[in-house]
Each structure stands twice: as C-alpha cells, then as structure tokens.
Amino acid sequence: MAHILELGGVTKTFRGGVVAVDDISLGISEGEYLTMLGPSGCGKTTTLRMIGGFEYPDRGSIMLDGRDITDDPPFRRPVNMMFQDFALFPHMTAAENIGYGLRIAGVGRGETEERVRAMLDMIELSEMGGRMPSQLSIGQRQRVALARALVNNPRILLLDEPLSALDAKLKETMQVELRHIHDRVGVTFVMVTHDQTESMIMSDRIMVMRAGRIEQIGRPTDLYDRPETAYVAEFLGASNMIPATVARDGAGAVARAGDLSVRVPDAGDAADGSVRSLFMRPEKIRLLADGAGAGAGASAFCGTVKELFFSGNAVRIDLEVGADRPVTVHHPLDTGLAAAGLPGVGDRVACAVGHDTLKLFDTAEVAAVEAEEAAA
Ligand SMILES: Nc1ncnc2c1ncn2[C@@H]1O[C@H](COP(=O)(O)OP(=O)(O)OP(=O)(O)O)[C@@H](O)[C@H]1O
Ligand SMILES: [Mg+2]
Hints:
Blueprint lengths: L2 E12 L3 E12 L3 E5 L6 H9 L6 E6 L2 E2 L10 E4 L11 H11 L4 H14 L15 H13 L5 E5 L7 H18 L2 E6 L2 H7 L2 E6 L2 E6 L1 H6 L4 H7 L3 E10 L2 E6 L2 E5 L10 E6 L4 E3 L10 E13 L3 E7 L6 E6 L2 H6 L7 E7 L4 E3 L1 H13 L1
Parallel strand pairs: 3-8, 3-9, 6-7, 7-8
Antiparallel strand pairs: 1-2, 1-4, 4-5, 9-10, 11-12, 11-14, 12-13, 14-20, 15-19, 16-17, 16-19, 17-18
The site of magnesium ion has 3 residues, from α1.
C-alpha cells in the first residue's frame, strides 16, 4: 500500500548544536495509528512539529500523498495538530468551538451546522452541543477538542501527548475512546507519548526513539516480544537481564548463570564462552506445580524465594538462582496458584520458561541502557 506520509532522512539541529532529530526515514500507511515513543528529549515533539510544518528540517524531505511538503507552511498542509492543553474557546459553546475553523475558512452556515452535528454524533455528545466548555467534564472537553481538529477532514491528525494531563482512570477511558474515534473516522493518527502501555494499547505501530533516531519500529506485540535491542526491551516493559555464560551448540545456545540453565534457540552472534545478558520477560516465566516438568520447548530451573509482592490479581516473586541478580517472576493469581497456595520467602520453587521468549543482549549495552534509565 502506498504511504500517505513519507519522511526521508529528516534531520533537525537546533541553535547550540542540539541534534533533536537525526536522519529519520519512515513511511506511514493511510488510516494507520502510529505512536512515537521514547524518553524525554529524544525528539518526539520535534518530529511531530516538522510533520505539521511548525518546524523545518535542515536535511531530508517530507512527502504527503506523494507531494513534497517539506517547505510548506502549516496552513498549506492538510494536517491538524492537537496540543496537550487542547484549550477550547471558553466563551463559545461546544458546537461553536467545533465549527470555528469551518467558519474561518468561509464554509457556509448550513454545511457548517451539518458537519458540526456529524462530529457531535461521532464523539457521542449529540445532546451537548449547546454547552459551554465549563459545563463539560474534562473527558468531554477533550472529545470536543478532537472533533474540532477533525471537522475539516485533515489527511493526518497529529497528537502530542494528548492524555498526559489526565488522571489515571480518565486516561484509560480516553485511550479506548481515542482509538474508537480513530477507527470511526479512518484518519491517519500520529501520536507522541512517553507512556509505553498507552502506546501498546492504542497503536497499530510504535516507533521507539532514542536520541533523535529510530531504535525500532513495528507492531506492539513484535516490539514487546521480539525487541531488537536492549533499549527497546527495557523501555517497553519489565525485563530480566541476567548475565549468563553462553555455550553454543547445533541448536543455538545454552545460557548458564548459577542454577539457571536455559536453551536459547535464537542466540544471534553470541560467541561460545562469552557472557551475555539473558532477556526474560517476568510474565513468561511460569511457576511449576510440584513434580511437573517444563514441557516441550521450555527449560525448567529452580530458585529460592527472596521476596514476594502481592498485587491482588498477580504476584511478583524475586528468585535467588545463584546468578549475579535475582530472577523476577510475574505470575497471575489464577485458580491453580490460588489452590496450591503462594510460596513463602525461603521456599524452593521450580519454574519454566519458553525458549522462543528468550534473547541474548550485549552486556555493555544493557549496562548503558540501565545507566540511562537511572539518570532519567
Ligand atoms: N526550540 C528549540 N531550541 C533548542 N533546542 C530545542 C528546541 N526544541 C527542542 N529542543 C531540544 O531538542 C531535543 C528534542 O526535544 P523534543 O521536544 O523533540 O523532545 P521530546 O521527545 O518531545 O521530549 P518530551 O518527552 O520531554 O516532550 C531536546 O534536547 C530539546 O531540548
Ligand atoms: Mg515532547
């Protein structure tokens, strides 16, 4: 499918020599929901602003529908941007807020009313068009702001951390709401966030950024399950990174650390005898019932419970396995575990982990990522 938007080698250096965006190339499909994810200062907003025309690249090109828009001012681009504070005009009703841009553009009264009504229906606020912003809840105000940004049918909607000011509960509701609205209108959304859960819930693809560059881009499940770098692995969720010695064989490698010995079919370029960081997602490790084996495609290991944290529907267990660090296991409190009873501190437990969930990363790279995280 042809791309609606293409960035080719886009670079932006600010005065003082800060390279905010460094050679980004990317194609976005029509109707896609793409999020740019990364820590503060990695260049997310700058990238978004260059798509919107509020900032110009000093190298590279931006193509929209096959047309070069690199040097076009914002008003020449069929692109709208929704800002974090999404300020509505306080002296205008919801309907007037939504229709404002159309009136400015000289769209007739009848058509404006029709399009505003369609937008109010779309955001499920049909009965509230006459209310002032102060008479709406924060979530409703945000939906009005979204309708205002969509009413003139932009080809692309840009959203810079649209939900970051909301409290946790409303944020969750709006994540689903925003995704539904995207699906209803079919407009291409490009959203910036630094919230990894949010990006996974909402988007078709996530672009993980690091220091102005694309670290990895892909579907949420691919990034989470098959991170290409330690940075992506650590950024998208909790991970064990256990220093382990690699023994290569015909079926990949076996990684060993203390009592831990697991098969890693995808051992990459890890050399025989080298030490690598063994990546294991805590929830991919299962506690085994008494006497049960790991089963095909999985390795079993034993450990001593060092600490246990109960969180209602799950339990987090830190296991001492005689390696440089404990292994963290995240286990749902399913009926099996509830019936068997939780282990206590000091108990020996057996676990299993599926081979295809494992990866080996460069230990120095892991240390660098952990130092970056600690500094942030
Ligand atoms: N107008 C500017 N002048 C100079 N430097 C800037 C300007 N805007 C951004 N920068 C710098 O460019 C880098 C990227 O900034 P950007 O705002 O794109 O980051 P971000 O990923 O959106 O971060 P955050 O999550 O904090 O919003 C940062 O180092 C920032 O200080
Ligand atoms: Mg930003």
